[in-house]
Amino acid sequence: MPGQHTRTSHFQHGIDRRVFLRNSVGVSAGLAAAPALAAWPAAAASSGANSPAAFVDSYTTNVVANQTAETNAAVRILGGFAEIWKTGSAWDSGMPLMPDVLRANMRYSVRVTTHRTDAEARLAFIHDRQHQSYAVIAGLGPLADLYKTGAKAVTGITSAPDGIPAGKINDTIPADAPAGSALGAGSHDSDLGKVAELVDTVRGPFASGNPSKFAYQYPRPWRMNKDSEVVDTGEKDALGYPVYASDVAVVPQLLRQRAEDPAEDGGFPSGHTNALHLAALAMAYAVPERFQEMVTRAFEVSHTRIVSGMHSTVDVIGGRILATALAAAALADPKNAGLKAAARAQAAAYFQEQTGTTADTLYAYAHSADLDEDPYASHALNSAGVTPKLTYVLPKRPVRDRMIVPKGAEVLLETRLPYLSAAQRREVLRTTALPAGYVLLDGFERWGRLNLFAAADGYGAFDSDVRVTMDAARGGFAAADTWRNDIGGRGSLVKRGTGTLTLAGANRYTGGTTLEEGVLVTGSRDALGCGDVHVRGGTLRTASTLRVRGAYAQSSGTTLDVTLTDDGTPALAVTRRVLLDRDSTLVIRLDDQRPPEPGTTIPVIDTPVLRGRFSRITVDGHDAEPVFTKRGLSVRLTHR
């Protein structure tokens, strides 16, 4: 405060991390006046018979009048921050409880803001001033422009000024916008009105981060130096703002956007980050064909809060945690059941009509652009961008704690994994969650440990037997889906139903695999983990060599569908025996790039013991003669 020097916090130093930015485009919400600060409780949550209500059952307590963990469910789930920081009686009198963490937090902010480029600064301005619900639309990739047209979604913030603006800047509807246009997610009176309404509902009256800001009173990084000291020089700059001896550089274009009253301008949690993730998760629910890309977009735009100098890493993590819980609560609320179903149906119908696709082909269209047109076209790059931002500078403590998924969280995957039960979606969230030991993420109900990007790739482990039934008639993900995670665990997988499931990870589960119906596709050498494989119905399809670390048995009426190249590698390598029933089929496809020459003999199954034979062997454009060897089965290709 003017005339007051120094409140020194004893924090220690942190970590360097490379900053990844793309061409991405997000608004600050002003803080309401803060009531008198309530005393911070000794514990964020209790356990046992007097445990607080689940967040999804109490999220409507998140209003400014409630600023304690006992009275506000949002403050409660962010209670992990109370292990790092103890709020004081005023905005600048808090105490660090984990100095190393908070010093690392500030030094990260210093490093990022002092090394950013002019282009990154301009982008950070756009993300700060643009409506957050509009900013995340870019995550829709090839569907983004169609969305903006169908929802009548517009923005007035498309570029950054060259220097410090003359006054504050807010997003407004451009004068040349079509009639009926709206900021943010768009107009409720549009072809995608239900989707826009869902976004606005998820970002409803109980979705603010302000109560938690007032509760924690953690200063913004531009008010602190890298050693986490708040030093007010007692002077004011040319803009009339107090001068702090801060090492964090706010982008010039945002200098006038800073709040003047620090008591009403807490940093934790980041309100922009909360809003960005809320909007992204609502859109991901309605357009699950771009689920992971929407999650990635939210992480990426939220990162520019740090680049801008307006927030620090813990602020951004806190905003994400809050948004994850708030989105789940709104989507799980029975009063929103009709709206979320209508939004999903409306989005599917609109995009299929606009693109000439079906429920089965819309996903391919939504991923049809390359990186030049769609910055989120690469799953690997998306994963690499999201993963470090899940924890930023937070250290990992040696803690073992079995993850219990928060009540209602499974609703976040309801449209992305529609063929799984609610219990199965909870298990996906549990087995893909971050490990215990990250301070702040281990708060009440563990919302911070959820990793929605990884969860969209299916199970992380089969800790018990998993039975999956997919229905091709339902279309979309219920007809065909891919699990990309490396699946561990002692359980088994049983695939049922008419749909197609692809396993693409380097899997380690040991309970074995049974295919009863439909199609099971292997996308890696170890896709079927460790254990026996039983093909009792349907088709097992391999695009490359598949290793079976156990026995392989194929029943009558089933098909093994393999692709062969000219390198002499067998399609199926089985460590134990192979049993083939009568009336089983082998379909051989020849690799387009490296097809074997006619007249050559190529191995198909490598095994120490082979019993039985296929009743039919088909090869497109060729005749195939089976050749039985000491190592299994080969085929000799001849022209028809």
From TrEMBL:
Transmembrane segments: none annotated. It comes from the Bacteria. Keywords: Signal. SMART domains: acidPPc. Gene3D superfamilies: Phosphatidic acid phosphatase type 2/haloperoxidase. Residues 1-38 form the signal peptide. It comes from Streptomyces xiangluensis. InterPro entries: Autotrns_rpt (IPR013425), PAP2/HPO (IPR000326), PAP2/HPO_sf (IPR036938), Pectin_lyase_fold/virulence (IPR011050), TAT_signal (IPR006311). This is Phosphatase PAP2 family protein. Residues 192-331 form the Phosphatidic acid phosphatase type 2/haloperoxidase domain.
